[in-house]
């Protein structure tokens, strides 16, 4: 039973991945002009024909389209995602490096956002309509309405420039050139980006948790708990929280996956050398292989997040078995 | 509806309508042509230029006004497409159920694993589309979420008694879907429209901020981008940097308030004790 | 006659809604004596559950409650919240409606019962667990040791009902409220639950809320019939359920399958704007002119038998 489900899931994920790869392939073919024109815009006119031929051969442009597609597909699966135009190294390598740096700010921000969002959202939902709830809700709506790039800019200006508390960008001071990377220095640089990312994602978690709690608070078993003589805080903590958090798991795992691209604005403004910044550079320089790679990584992350959510949920909800079509 | 709810609704609608008016009346309100060179570059606000000028000596105030058009267009057009598509597919999928529903949901499942934002980025980089195309693209890619939402409501409606009754009278499927299911789904679709509009506006401006998007159109995102790139932070060119950001935030807020207020009205979650 | 365990005097419960004030209980006077089972019979929407919730103060915060509810001499409605919490579960137990949704799906059945025990009796977890298993056994759940570790969704409707009963009895309260315990159960399970209650009710006073007349007949010593938020008949169950005084009660009995299944015409009245005069008059076969304008009081029609009807309240 479980095995069949897992296989089905993997197959769907495989299909999703293939489709992403296919879309990329089609995009290449549909490009106005041909591939070479995109790559070697200026040199093309000056490239001697045998260079052009060699180029075509290396990139398999001289083979029938279907064969190209299959080769492309195979490459994608093997991690052979081509070479970055900007960095001249394998796409996967450069993505891997930058991904680490994104994690440095993303993981703390997301973790904090989840904890804070769950805590505050639960309380807000439990005390629906109270002054605290209304204040929090309006506050969160306000923060969420601010575009992330604007928020980042404002934080940079206020804390970095006017209050001069934190560095204006980058991940290390120039001192790193001589004395190497100091973790404390990196931490200091990371504060503002983490703050921005946190502010942006906590609103989402808060909203979801509050909604979840609103539904849980109205359930019959909460009345049962009151009828037993339990006090409100205990009921919130023991009975309501656990039930309200169940739908959160799926939401949060999926949210995590989308955060990578969400960080593009934050990283660009704070000059933080992570995946977001990489994406920006790739866009600027139209580094197609790199962009493809980023798209694929993102797809992979979403797929992994989906499967993780599916597998975790049955572990925490006793009513659900793996494969219940959650 | 409580008084405070009414105030919020009125305020947000007022703001949205003001923006619409500004967008429509832009040629008449803006003192200068947004692309024209008028006087000295990077000059602070004065009587001639209420918000100063940018690096190309263009009047920022005029650009701010003209920028409303791009923002509203992307937001509303994109949202309209997303909601119409999403609702349409959702109704069909939920109403017919069975194989059609399965097939559609499978496709949506796979489609949703593809990250929309990176795809949008790549598409806009390589096609350098005008803002209409961007709006359409966003609408298309953004419709998937709506399908799920609408479909779940339609599922419960499709088996409701009044639908079975109408079927028993011999009504055609399209009639039932249009006359009976659609009106019931409209409130939900309406709320989705408001939130989608907000979302797309933010993304649209974001694209401008990243330097993608239509360069021929005045775009608040581009303004912010150019401002920060020209050292607005260091040089303290607040009149260039801040107004576009505020403009976006305000319309975004108005839409959010509107959306939440409507959502609360539609989904009463207060559970009345059974008597 | 001993002093009443529970005395309800002039209870009015109202819910403010956008459409007006819902008068779920309109001046209810009721007494429940030690070791008696009082059956409370009424249709859906008559105000039965509201009554039970009011006793334990489990209604929504914006509910308007007036009157007195004296339990062992103390007015429950004027107790501070932390005192009320000591009453809930320990002195007064309740078996809520809808057993399926009244149990927390993410905790084991044993845990939920044990929780009541640890709360009021301060036992350690292991002793509380043992007691929970004992209680499951007392409500006749087979293999209680294993079942205590089960989750609510793994239990059938009848078993969930028993779990709720066990939970209500956990601290051996002297007063139990049972809200429609046989609702939604098949005939066989219904009989089993009724049997169980026969045992349970022996040692305590019970307010047995139901619309199942058979259950009331089997378990209740006295019955009260509630209609549109008012008590309209009260008396010995044997008498009321065979020779009812009030036309509504008569109608209820006649609507039973074995008595001919003749439903009462019309539908339950609005609690926001109840009918003037006698609230049952719009649907009553014997309604006369004064029924529509005069509001009858609850008068004695036999020894310990009361009815609220103009038939008995004319001059």
- In helices, the fraction of residues of chain C equals 25-40%
Q: What structural category do the secondary elements of chain A indicate?
A: mainly alpha
Gap between N and C termini of chain C: 30 Å
3D shape of chain A: flat
List low-confidence stretches of chain C: none
* Approximate strand percentage of chain C: 15-25%
At the third CATH level, what is the topology name of one domain in chain C? Rossmann fold
**What sequence of helices (H) and strands (E) makes up the elements of chain A?**
HHHHHHHHHHHHHH
Number of helices, counting only DSSP H or I runs of 4 residues or more of chain A: 14
- Poorly predicted parts of chain A: none
User: Count of helices of chain C?
Assistant: 12
CATH superfamily of one domain in chain C: P-loop containing nucleotide triphosphate hydrolases
- Report the C-alpha radius of gyration of chain C, rounded: 20 Å
**What structural class do the secondary elements of chain C suggest?**
alpha/beta
Beta content of chain A comes to under 5%
Helix amount of chain A, in percent?
over 70%
Shape of chain C: globular
Rounded mean pLDDT of chain A is 79
- Compressed to H and E, one letter per element, the order of chain C equals EEEHEEHEHHHHHEHEHEEHHHEE
Describe the structure concisely.
The complex is a heterotrimer of chains A (326), B (275) and C (315). With 275 residues, chain B is mainly alpha-helical. Chain B has eleven helices and no strands.
Task: Describe this protein's structure.
The complex is a heterotrimer of chains A (326), B (275) and C (315). By secondary structure, chain A is mainly alpha-helical. In chain A, 78% of the residues lie in helices and 0% in strands. Chain A is built from 14 helices and no strands. In chain A, α10 crosses α12. Chain A is flat and about 85 Å long. The relative contact order of chain A is 0.13. Chain B has one domain: MetI-like (MetI-like fold), CATH 1.10.3720. Helices cover 75% and strands 0% of the residues of chain B. Chain B is built from eleven helices and no strands. In chain B, α3 packs parallel to α6, α8 packs antiparallel against α11 and α9 runs antiparallel to α11. With 315 residues, chain C is of the alpha/beta class. Chain C has an eight-stranded mixed sheet with strand order 6-7-8-3-9-10-12-11, with helices on both faces. Chain C has a four-stranded antiparallel sheet with strand order 2-1-4-5, covered by helices on one side. In chain C, β1 and β2 form a beta hairpin. In chain C, α4 crosses α5 and α4 runs parallel beside α7. Chain C is globular. The model of chain C has no long low-confidence stretch (mean pLDDT 89). Chains in contact: A-B, A-C, B-C. Chains B and C meet through loops of B and α1 of C.
